[in-house]
Amino acid sequence: MAKPDVNPAIQDGGAHGFLSPAAGFRPGVVSRVSTALKEGQVSPTELCQRCLSLIKATKFLNAYITVTEDTALRQAEESEKRYRRGQSLGDLDGIPVAVKDNFSTTGIETTCASNMLKGYIPPYSATVVQKLLDQGAVLIGKTNLDEFAMGSGSTDGIFGPVRNPWSYSKQYREKCGQNSHLENEDSSWLITGGSSGGSAAAVSSFTCFAALGSDTGGSTRNPAAHCGVVGLKPTYGLVSRHGLIPLVNSMDVPGILTRCVDDAATVLGVLAGHDPKDSTTVQDPFNPFKLPSVIDVSKLCIGIPKEYHIPGLSSETLAVWSKAADLFENAGARVIEVSLPHTCYSIVCYHVLCTAEVASNMARFDGLEYGHRSNMDKSTESMYAATRREGFNDVVRGRILSGNYFLLKQNYEKYFIKAQKVRRLIANDFVNVFSSGVDVLLTPTTLRDAVPYVEFIKEDNRTRSAQDDIFTQAANMSGLPAVSIPTALSEKGLPIGLQFVGRAFQELQLLTVAKWFEKQAKFPILQLQEMLDHADALSHQKISLSS
Amino acid sequence: MAAPMSGGGRLCRLAWRRRAGALHSGAQPAALGREPGKVAETQSGVAPWRAVVGLEVHAQINSNSKIFSGSQVQFTAPPNSLVSFFDASLPGTLPVLNRRCVEAAVMTGLALSCSINKKSLFDRKHYFYADLPAGYQITQQRLPIAVNGNLSYTLYVGAKQSQMVTKNVRIKQIQLEQDSGKSLHNDARSQTFIDLNRAGVGLMEVVMEPDMCCGEEAAAAVRELQLILQTLGSSQAIMAEGQLRVDANVSVRHPGEPYGVRTEVKNINSLRFLARAVDYEIQRQIEELENGGTILNETRAFDYKLGCTIPMRDKEGKQDYRFMPEPNLPPLILYDAKSLPANIDDQQVVNIDWIQERLPDLPSVKRARLVEQYGILPEHSFTLLNEDGLMELFEDVVRKTQMNPKKVIGWVISELLGHLKQYDLTVKESPVNSVSLADLLNLLERGVISSSAAKQVLEELWKGEGKTPLQIVKEKRLELIQNQRELDQICQAVMEGHQEEVMEIKAGNKKVLNKLIGLVQRATQRRADPILVKQILEKKLSQ
């Protein structure tokens, strides 16, 4: 049985204190809010307004690029009418959600945090966005990211870096021995990880209940780990990419960021399934599931990949990982060391495949049909060149250049084909491990806890991405589902996440294991109250966060 | 290896053009009088030049919607009115393969005796061009849908072009791909307008091996391909509307030597220009080489006004298309009866055997049938197929008349088609349809009118006033005089009025009889059956 004190992420007396933990069985946050909405304890409009107020109060986090206040309130009103009629559309009806700003949203600016798409208002919505809206979810805003999702810090977008809410937590401030005066925080605030840092920060700071990220090499799981939230990367082909502005088509997957595993399962249930608009989604029908409340892991086999024990891994993350393995062992699970022998080639192989597809995908941004167009009008070619120089940042341009290099006729065999072969070997590593009887792999999500921004930018984007994607990108190379679960706080009081990798299309098993682990981990709640008090005392009073 | 040129006179002429030329007064000779074969023979003492011609034919697939999007396909529509989000390459949009396009390619592949690949792949071909919104074209570079086929075509050879020769060209592959949009340049204002209606329309690129050796052969091969596509309905293949576009790869060499450097001639939008462009390019290369020059591996455009090929400026730099697998489209898997999985939704699969069973009769089969069934000449069968709708009209007329098909064919080709050519009309546009032609020929067959009267009626029908042949015959009083006594009297009157001639005939000069017949015809306004008149006159003269 779940213990009442394993609260996924509801802040006591905090933002959503009106939802006091019930005793005994504890479904996810979303279903509890949904119940509160049904019972009239809170209305969708109130809920929406509270989130909007919180967004304002946490504006300095820079989690959102666009806050869709008006449409959100309108959607909340619609939801309210449905609840009044007793015709709720489901668990997500009236629930405020955020969407990474690389998903197309009808009538709402979609920028990819790039000058290239600044001001671009798509005429259609991504399938996953539409599915959320069709379930009555309230879209509260579009979240910040690295330009075109290229990065692992959420620091390289035109709207500036996203700040990790944990920078302002009681836990971190106390451990760091710093006072919580905001005047001093400029040097100490932490990155969120990325590239879906805005979505992770939005969920982590309670401004929404779920957010969409995208995950190409770890872009959902990495910031989830750094921000202390659940980050799910579903199996490639399970969730439609239609409307997700691509980074690497063969690896991109819409990611789900939530406060707890149950919520991730709820959102997955809404998003998953074949989409005729995305030919890479599988035809097999997907049955939405609820995770069991009583979970027995004693018959499971948990694999610990030995190649993931690498020099750069921080000792405390290693300790958390070992402890997690012990938890499973103590619960009767078989925990074995396994080998994924091609792991060491994965990141360089990922780099070749990623840049090649980036070079191709970015070719459409020529200033003709949409987005930025340079004033340069000497010739079509010079207009293209100027548009692309002005529109893309160095990271994007760098990846385009290297990708095109790998695709040149004389290099194609040497780089691209070879990388594809290595990718197959990496995928086979996982196939072999899973066919040997392992159910789920347990690994770290990141090398260490979040670093301060000033530290992070000492290395360039490419070096950072290569380091930060080390544990995550293999799941993208092999298409497997993976989830990062907030596990413990570091010595600095910052979140450390662990990753579970499951068999293809076995999200039910993966999330069941993750839910069991979540309960054991007892990850603490982000204590933001102090930060909010300081951040905007006035507006805080107005919105009366506590019930 | 390219097929060597046929020995003997190389004055090959196309079956399809021969008929057209014969009927079309002032028709241009196809090869500009610069036959490559002839030029080669002028090089005394030196081995003659041999030309090697390969073709890449782009055929727009005849489908309701585009190959990867739901936009409609329509040749005449206001600019940018048929553009989906995908066609405009809006970020986040994905291609969804149109089943109809796959079926069209399979059909075409089967008709060209190709092996159909049960698994084929899509690739991206990158280049920046204003009418290519995504910056790449989705095509099938690595593993196309059909390979290793064959196309037989026929042309006329020999001094009088009386000899029909059947040739073969190997089909290397058929690949599915997207068409690009259209750029309209306004040089005066240095502006370019982009129309994306065509962007994303399905294309079949048919790649022919370099098995041809002159413009005539190239044009004949493309004409046969065009007929096959039209028969299948896989493409409307109208060159003037850009539904069939041909790029020709041309090189020359001496026999036994390896291939020479080739040029690619683009912008060819009619069969006539194809023949001219290829022959011009062959001639140009020969002259260039004989003058000690070299051939550049370049792209050239055919300028139909100047009748020559010129280098294309915008393609000067060597392109590296940076091919890459298209990650948004899984491999295209086709099935046959053997591999078809059980319990599969028919709508989800393309079954090669099913398509094979439903292939319509191909032009070669139709021609053979026409020759066998109606006893017409093989060249007539070519004419019937070459003119859209003419075969149907012919067969319709045959069904509706008692006249021997061998006679009907003369009326259809010499008279009807002759008229159409003269006024540059298609069979569809003809004011004379199969019903009125059949009525007319029945009047002739029943002896109601003479064949010269029939031609008069046809002239009237041509005016398109909606009258039936019988009405015209009545109005113009064109019926043959059936009344023997009436004819007798007329003949008698003519003889009486021309005693001199009668005397001459009686003196043994039989030729003068024709003059009397002519006089009778004039007297009857050609309403007399000449054979009957002759009999009557002879009888009277011998009395």
TrEMBL record, chain A:
The keyword ATP-binding applies. Residues 51-169, 191-511 form the Amidase domain. One of its GO terms (biological process) is glutaminyl-tRNAGln biosynthesis via transamidation. Its main location: mitochondrion. It holds the Pfam family Amidase. GO terms for cellular component: glutamyl-tRNA(Gln) amidotransferase complex; mitochondrion. InterPro entries: Amidase, Amidase_dom, AS_sf, GatA. GO terms for molecular function: ATP binding; glutaminyl-tRNA synthase (glutamine-hydrolyzing) activity. Subunit of the heterotrimeric GatCAB amidotransferase (AdT) complex, composed of A (QRSL1), B (GATB) and C (GATC) subunits. Belongs to the amidase family. GatA subfamily. This is Glutamyl-tRNA(Gln) amidotransferase subunit A, mitochondrial. It comes from Alligator sinensis (Chinese alligator). The gene is QRSL1.
UniProtKB/TrEMBL annotation, chain B:
The keyword Protein biosynthesis applies. It is an enzyme of class 6 (ligase). Its main location: mitochondrion. GO terms for biological process: glutaminyl-tRNAGln biosynthesis via transamidation; mitochondrial translation. GO terms for cellular component: glutamyl-tRNA(Gln) amidotransferase complex; mitochondrion. It comes from the Eukaryota. It is found in: Mitochondrion. Its EC number is 6.3.5.-. Residues 392-541 form the Asn/Gln amidotransferase domain. InterPro entries: Asn/Gln-tRNA_amidoTrfase_suB/E, Asn/Gln-tRNA_Trfase_suB/E_cat, Asn/Gln_amidotransferase, Asn/Gln_tRNA_amidoTrase-B-like, GatB, GatB_C_1, GatB_Yqey_C_2, Gln_synth/guanido_kin_cat_dom. GO terms for molecular function: asparaginyl-tRNA synthase (glutamine-hydrolyzing) activity; ATP binding; glutaminyl-tRNA synthase (glutamine-hydrolyzing) activity. It catalyses: L-glutamyl-tRNA(Gln) + L-glutamine + ATP + H2O = L-glutaminyl-tRNA(Gln) + L-glutamate + ADP + phosphate + H(+); L-aspartyl-tRNA(Asn) + L-glutamine + ATP + H2O = L-asparaginyl-tRNA(Asn) + L-glutamate + ADP + phosphate + 2 H(+). SUPFAM superfamilies: GatB/YqeY motif, Glutamine synthetase/guanido kinase. Keywords: ATP-binding, Ligase, Mitochondrion, Nucleotide-binding, Protein biosynthesis. The keyword Ligase applies. Subunit of the heterotrimeric GatCAB amidotransferase (AdT) complex, composed of A (QRSL1), B (GATB) and C (GATC) subunits. Heterotrimer of A, B and C subunits. Belongs to the GatB/GatE family. GatB subfamily. Allows the formation of correctly charged Asn-tRNA(Asn) or Gln-tRNA(Gln) through the transamidation of misacylated Asp-tRNA(Asn) or Glu-tRNA(Gln) in organisms which lack either or both of asparaginyl-tRNA or glutaminyl-tRNA synthetases. The reaction takes place in the presence of glutamine and ATP through an activated phospho-Asp-tRNA(Asn) or phospho-Glu-tRNA(Gln). Allows the formation of correctly charged Gln-tRNA(Gln) through the transamidation of misacylated Glu-tRNA(Gln) in the mitochondria. The reaction takes place in the presence of glutamine and ATP through an activated gamma-phospho-Glu-tRNA(Gln). This is Glutamyl-tRNA(Gln) amidotransferase subunit B, mitochondrial. It comes from Alligator sinensis. The gene is GATB.
